[in-house]
Amino acid sequence: MKRMIIFCMLFFYSIVVLTAASPRAVKYKQMQRTIRDLETIVKDKDAELLHTPENPVEGCLYTAVTCFKKEIEKLQPVSNQENTMFTKAIRRVRNFTYKDPGKHCESTCESYEKKTPKEFLKNFANLMQ
């Protein structure tokens, strides 16, 4: 009987471990949620256009993420009422880390086309998927 209980407990714990999401996946989901929050409170009209990486090649992902993090500093909230939520979201993006693969990418942030803040955030969310 004891063996059966121990076996059932081990089986249950193995299922729990296998179905748990990886920390990396959770981190990317949180970043996507933050970007969606920013889309609703960012100023889009009369705003500065931002360099927006689109479809970066595998070796240039680090450069693209770094570009997004640099350009996101230029975003502005629609109104002062959303300023605290906006500041927290920007801080979360700024603290996001992406491992540098050590490969050198030929494209720079300035080589990407400039787009509106809403398009910029949509492309950033796509990159996080």
Automatic annotation (TrEMBL):
Its main location: secreted. GO terms for cellular component: extracellular space. SUPFAM superfamilies: 4-helical cytokines. GO terms for biological process: immune response; positive regulation of natural killer cell mediated cytotoxicity. Keywords: Cytokine, Disulfide bond, Secreted, Signal. Residues 1-20 form the signal peptide. One of its GO terms (molecular function) is cytokine activity. The keyword DNA repair does not apply. The keyword Signal applies. Gene3D superfamilies: Interleukin-15/Interleukin-21. InterPro entries: 4_helix_cytokine-like_core, IL-15/IL-21_fam. It comes from the Eukaryota. It is found in: Secreted. Belongs to the IL-15/IL-21 family. PANTHER family: INTERLEUKIN-15-RELATED, INTERLEUKIN-21. Cytokine with immunoregulatory activity. May promote the transition between innate and adaptive immunity. Induces the production of IgG(1) and IgG(3) in B-cells. Implicated in the generation and maintenance of T follicular helper (Tfh) cells and the formation of germinal-centers. Together with IL6, control the early generation of Tfh cells and are critical for an effective antibody response to acute viral infection. May play a role in proliferation and maturation of natural killer (NK) cells in synergy with IL15. This is Interleukin. It comes from Malurus elegans. The gene is Il21.
